Amino acid sequence: MEDKDVVVVDGYVDEPSTLGVPPYIAPHVRMLVGCAEELNLGWDYVTADDYRKNGLPKSSKVLLYGGVTVPGKYLGGTPLSPREAEMIGKNCAETFLGGPLARHDKVRGFDHYSYRDLAAYFYEKENGGDKDRWATSEEIERWLIKGNKVVERHPSFPDPLIAEVSLYRGCVRYFSGGCSFCSETQYGKPEFREQEDVIAEIGKLYDLGVRNFRIGGQSCTVSYKAEGVGESETPKPRPREIRELLEGIWQRCPEIKVLHLDNTNPSVIASWPEESMKILKIFVESTTPGNVLALGLETADRKVMEKNNLNSSPEEAKRAVEMINEVGSERGENGMPRLLPGINFLGGLRGETAETYVKNFRFLRELVDEGNLLRRINIRQVLSHTSDFDLKHKKEFKRFKRRTREEIDRPMLKRIVPEGTVLRDVYMEKREGSKTFGRQIGTYPLLVGIEYPVELETYKDIIITDYGYRSITGLVHPFELRKASYQELKAVPGIGEKRAAKIFQEKPSSIEEMKNIVNNGQDLEKIMRYADL
Question: What residue spans of 287-420 are helical by DSSP H?
Fold first, then answer.
């Protein structure tokens, strides 16, 4: 095989405003390929998981982008660790490193480090310069379009690949320093992309075969093209701008399967309720069900909020949750509510006390007791590389997390997707022993466990039978008793091992025959709630 000029290594990125762990592909690697295209360089593309299996192809230059600042649990792939990155740096030709791995992880062995945009830095180097800088708006648009073809090389292409798309980077609170733990303010004043540019990017990916998109690469979706950026920390939202964007996407790409969003500042929603409600209704009308707006509350302790310059108060977050529930809790065609809020909590912020975690749980309990739905409660420790963040109250943090999972998450799941709900198009991703795990494609999808083997890389409809703390158990729907294996029959609530053996042997074709086998009216009713003859 012919050696390439450049190998782009997708180490996967997971940051507050960008997902790039499979099935996602982040904009950064698309920009790197676009930059190589513009420089007329031959390129290859390798994911972190490809590298682990097969190593790297030969090239004169290696461009590695990746790193995690908000670690999560991943099914589709595993981000490249700092140690793995160091092996690439030490053992390859001329090497370039960008992303959180370069900015935060002190990875050694690379020839060049970019603490801003790796694509722009590489472009400078190839043209005789040595400036580490942010890419200009014009470069971003050019490189995204030129680099879109890299999606064809992604292992999840064309499905279930999700293309992560950004409306802007940075934070509207940049002039006040933003939240103490967050890196978004480093980009300076947000420069909003034009609707036609975003639509053109999505359109090119759509033409290549991508059908799943998340507009997730920005700190607050509601603040897109807001009025008063640089003057107010809560600029006035402009519903017309967002409607023009989303309607334009659907006109250009009418057969999109998934169109989801991500971050929103609850303070902006609460400060501008009329404009925000219009936008929330646009989201419900113009995105696909299962959508989640992640709200960065971080703490319900006002003193901690003030010491960390956080973006919203508990009261503002509560109002945002209520507004999102008001317009988005209706169940959509895929079985999930159309639009629900998520809440983020951080442990280890400045000024925390043991009482902080009592306030956090009390805040959640109040939301739930008042009937609100929360699709996702993300509780994590601050991942910061400065010494003034320290989780001093580990016991209270762990207790808060445990109580939230046991007393909030599991009951919440039962309300969001009641027993017997059918989730459509669940993608079968992973096998562990005889169990199969899958998820719908989209933002923060529910993990679905099936107690028997199901063919991987297929889509199945799943009827829900039971609940974990953050996951659910189900059966492939429809479930036909006469065609089911013994192992499949055991997974049906109300059957058990003895009945499963008898049903498998006798293959009943009527309710009367089932009555003779089950010999218990309540159990039979439960079984037939999930299964057909």
Answer: 302-307, 314-328, 354-369, 394-403, 410-416
Q: Which residue has 């169940």 as its token pair?
A: 331
The b/e string for 208-227 (b: 16+ C-beta within 10 A; e otherwise) is eebbbbbbbbbbbbbbbbbe
d(CA 287, CA 258): 8
pLDDT tens digit sequence for 294-306:
999 999 999 999 9
Q: Are the C-beta atoms of 413 and 464 separated by less than 8 Å? A: no
Tokens of 429: 């991703």
Rounded CA-CA distance 102/109 in Å is: 11
Instruction: Report pLDDT for 75.
Output: 78
Q: What is the pLDDT of residue 387?
A: 53
| Ranges of residues in the chain whose predicted pLDDT is under 50 | none
pLDDT, tens digit (0-9, with 9 covering 90-100), for 511-521: 999 999 999 99
Q: Looking at residue 182, what is its pLDDT? A: 83
Q: Which residues pair with 67 in a beta bridge?
A: 13
The pLDDT score that the predictor gives to residue 271 is 97
For residue 95, list its beta bridge partners. Answer: 62
> Strand 459-467 relative to strand 422-432: parallel, antiparallel, unpaired?
antiparallel
Domains in the chain (CATH in brackets) are 4-126 (3.40.50), 160-193+205-416 (3.80.30.20), 422-532 (no CATH)
Angle at 410 between CA 431 and CA 373, to 5 degrees: 115
pTM over 0.85: yes
Angle between helices 137-146 and 118-126 (to 10 degrees): 90
